Amino acid sequence: MLEELSAAVDGLLSVDAHGLSDGELSEALVGLEAERARLDAAEARLVAMWDARKAWAVDGARSGAAWLAWRCRLPRAEARRRVRLARWVRDAPVVERAWREGEVSAAHVALLARACTARTAEAFARDEKVLVDAARQLRFGEFAKVVAYWSQHADPDGAEDAAADQVARRQMHLSQSLDGMWLGDLVLDPLGGAAVAETLALIEEELFAADWAEAKTRVGDSVTVADLGRTPPQRRADALVEMAVRARAAPPGGRRPAPLFTVHVGYETFAGRVCELANGAVVAPGALVPWLDGADIERVVFAGPSRVIDVGAHTRFFVGGARRAIEIRDRTCYHPTCDRATRLQVDHVQPWAAGGATTQDNGRLACPHHNRLRNRRAAPTSPDDGEPP
Ligand SMILES: [Zn+2]
Questions:
Q1: In angstroms, what is the span from residue 22 Cα to ligand 1's centroid?
Q2: Which comes out higher in pLDDT, residue 342 or 106?
Q3: Does the pLDDT at position 83 exceed 90?
Q4: Alpha helix ranges (H) inside the chain
Q5: Which residue ranges form the domains of the chain, and what is each CATH number?
Q6: What is the pTM of this model?
Q7: What's the gap in Å between 168 CA and the centre of ligand 1?
Q8: What is the pLDDT of residues 60-73, one digit of tens each?
Q9: How far does residue 333's CA lie from ligand 1's centre (Å)?
Q10: How far is the centre of ligand 1, averaged over its atoms, from the C-alpha of 382 (Å)?
């Protein structure tokens, strides 16, 4: 049964990779990824049959996962995952078909299996095709968001329970070692974590700017990150200490700064349910409640899926309302290969120097890398259009 597959892999292993062009290599990677998915689906089909027959019992194993872990030298968690997916996908015919066609991967199937619980099974059977279509079309992060919203919708109580459970799992350890060093680790829920991470990132940026300025006076214009006086982990540690210093410097009873993080809610008419942090993490509406006391509510009016408010300003830079409107509308870097959602700049689609206006229609979000890159090369407009011009 496996001889032909084995021969095909032998053929692949002996291909002269040096003889392939960049385009051929890229195409081969995409094709291989689809074949890998098909192979996983074929394996799952056999695992399901083998597991249903309890063919593993003859060797005295307690379960199929135990047998697989022993016989194939797999990590136990991986063996359990394979058996679970194989069992689950038998009852999800649309998912299984797409998997066999190589249109979705084991990672997609695993995410769908996790979303399909006893409480959501009925809704899953109804919406299976819609979810599989999302898996086929969207990049993985976007698909994961669709599944997260779907889960909230199919089982609102379950989503709130899961969010409460995440908050309950928060913890932090900080202790001093015998030689006086401090060691720590922490687990934070999505909102608390975002508040800490975004505050730290702001201070880190300040420290980076200071390091850069210092290195420039030392090295001159040829300065690179290698010339900086601190490594990124050292800078992060210093940012945490600086956060403590600033906390003590704040006057008692002073106004708490806001916002510590941004949540996008509403916008249902155009985009379906939205309740996510600015970094793209989907959160349960109930998780926001404890934060509402100290939150600044920012009201944004959408006049269409891609129009917040028209702020036509004849200025060189996107500032104030025009900038905020684009941040809220786009949320991630414009470049199709990139889904960065933090520390973005607002960029002109048609450059200002080429007569582009500073308006919402001519603005988009770009990460620092793609803001620089756009000056050198046009972005591919679709996955099939990735060849540099
Ligand atoms: Zn980018």
A1: 22
A2: 106
A3: yes
A4: 3-13, 22-52, 64-71, 76-89, 93-100, 106-115, 121-137, 140-154, 156-168, 190-219, 232-249, 268-271, 285-288, 320-330, 368-373
A5: 25-154 (no CATH), 171-249 (no CATH), 300-385 (1.10.30)
A6: 0.69
A7: 35
A8: 999 999 999 999 99
A9: 5
A10: 15
Distance between Cα 139 and ligand 1 center (Å): 14
Task: Give the pairing of strands 171-176 and 182-187.
Answer: antiparallel
Q: Which single residue is written with the structure tokens 């800078």?
A: 235
* Distance in Å from the first CA to the final CA of the chain: 45
Cα 332 to ligand 1 centre (Å): 8
Contact (CB, 8 A) for 99 and 40: yes
Cis peptide before 190 (omega within 30 of 0): no
In DSSP terms, 176 is beta-bridged to: 182
Write out the two tokens for 79.
């063996």
CA of 335 to the centre of ligand 1 (A): 5
Gap from CA of 374 to ligand 1 centroid (Å)? 10
Of the candidates 286, 292, 264, the residue with the CA atom closest to the CA atom of residue 276: 264
Alpha carbon of residue 321 to chain centroid: 27
Q: Ligand 1 centre from 63 Cα, in Å?
A: 46
CA of 290 to the centre of ligand 1 (A): 33
Q: For 239-265, what is each residue's pLDDT tens digit?
A: 999 999 988 887 777 666 555 566 666
Q: What separation in Å is there between the alpha carbon of 26 and the centre of ligand 1?
A: 20
The pair of structure tokens assigned to 65 is: 């996962």
Would you mind telling me the total number of residues written for the chain in this entry? 389
Spacing, Cα 245 to ligand 1 middle (Å): 34
Tell me the CA–centroid distance for residue 348 and ligand 1, in Å.
14
Centre of ligand 1 to C-alpha 148, Å, is 24
Q: Ligand 1 centre and the CA of 232: distance in Å?
A: 21
Nearest-angstrom CA–CA distance, 386 and 389:
9
Neighbours of 129 (CB within 10 A): 12
